[in-house]
Amino acid sequence: MKVLMFGWEFPPHILGGLGTASYGLTKGLSVQPDMDITFCIPKPWGDEDQSFMKIIGMNSVPIVWRDVDWNYVNSRVGSYMDPQLYYDLRDHIYADFSYMHVNDLGCMEFSGRYPDNLHEEINNYSIVAGVVARQQQFDIIHAHDWLTYPAGIHAKQVSGKPLVIHVHATDFDRSRGNVNPTVYGIEKNGMDYADCIMCVSELTRQTVINHYHQDPAKCFAMHNAVYPLAPELQAIVDQRKPSSERKEKVVTFLGRITMQKGPEYFIEAAKRVLDRTHNVRFCFAGSGDMMNAMIEMAAAYGIADRCHFPGFMKGKQVFECFRDSDVYVMPSVSEPFGISPLEAMQSGVPSIISKQSGCAEILSKCIKVDYWDIDAMADAMYALCMYPSLHEYLQTEGKKEVDGITWEKVGQRIRKLYDETIQKCK
After folding, report:
1. Domains within the chain, CATH numbers bracketed
2. C-alpha count within 13 angstroms, C-beta hemisphere, residue 132
3. Measured in Å, how far apart are the chain's first and last C-alpha atoms?
4. pTM across the whole model
5. How many CA atoms, within 13 angstroms, populate the side-chain half-sphere of residue 104?
6. Which residues make beta-bridge pairs with 10?
7. What is the pLDDT of residues 56-80, one digit of tens each?
8. Which of 30, 54, 253, 379 is 20 to 30 A from 290 (CA-CA)?
9. Model pLDDT for residues 306-327, shown as the tens digit of each residue
10. What share of the chain is helix, strand, coil (3-state, %, to 5)?
11. CA distance readout (Å), 337 to 63, 156, 359
């Protein structure tokens, strides 16, 4: 089976959970011997792992007929593209050409990130998607998150192939209900055109059905997973000192410091813990638009000397952070899934997660609290820091549980939905 995927980020260059999930999902699918995946991203950096799929950089796909070095094109895209494909891009296109600017090779330029002109880049990405869809051979289209839905729609229009969209989050999650109408419009249009909608949790599936008015029969919960730690990462977490030998405990928040993630509830709970003991430190590993506010809040509560803000972490830094942590907390107000608790538990860190998260649907060997229940969150933090038996139980059983949640199993479920969607669209 040949799959044309559209994504926005891919390891090692990631800015959030989307890239991590994209990697795990594609690698889990690739275990199937007949699976052939072409993954499109705006701007590859050259160090992505292409051992199990082919990556196309949308910044390397010519979209206008010029004096192009076709040997260069073939080496970057993979097959010869007839120049006539670029004459009629305006026919049945899902894009606004007023934003289109090309370089001397006839290619669009992309930042590879989330720039201020993000909507312009989304639009231009969808234009290039039409070109890619004309020159690649594939059986189904899979578009990850709202940034690539227009690309998926355009690829469907020019190829007639079924479209699967993967809802990793909605604007209802990111904005605490203060939805951006432009983003909502892009999300809903993608869902309306989709033949199959995969949602990272039942929580997200219900949002798609109730707020985007989608047919429940085409919406499916598809929970994320984790990969076994690479040897170099396992070596890092193996350096952990037993919690009983640590004079001070470390409780960690790791993620974007934004209103979706509930960092203020973490601070509130930290204050309650420190009212009972001074033997605990609190780590805010991440960055975001609420970071300064959280620093000021810690200072106002008089706990700034027990709170640390090391900034954004990625790759091995994440697992160094887990190695030095006794407890992980995810107090998200609305979390479509949440891969970081799985990574923490995989690293042997007992975790506290909000009941308002998708991963709460599949995890049982952790402590679950309502994000707004500060007392319950503080009690859970205190208990895991002070009661060795509870800590040891969740450390051991949590790792055992997460080790059984694999991307290969997710890939098998996705393949089943691919087959059903293709059959339904014949």
Report:
1. 2-225+407-425 (3.40.50.2000), 231-403 (3.40.50.2000)
2. 36
3. 15
4. 0.86
5. 1
6. 13
7. 999 999 886 544 454 544 444 443 3
8. 379
9. 999 999 988 899 999 999 999 9
10. 45, 15, 35
11. 36, 27, 5
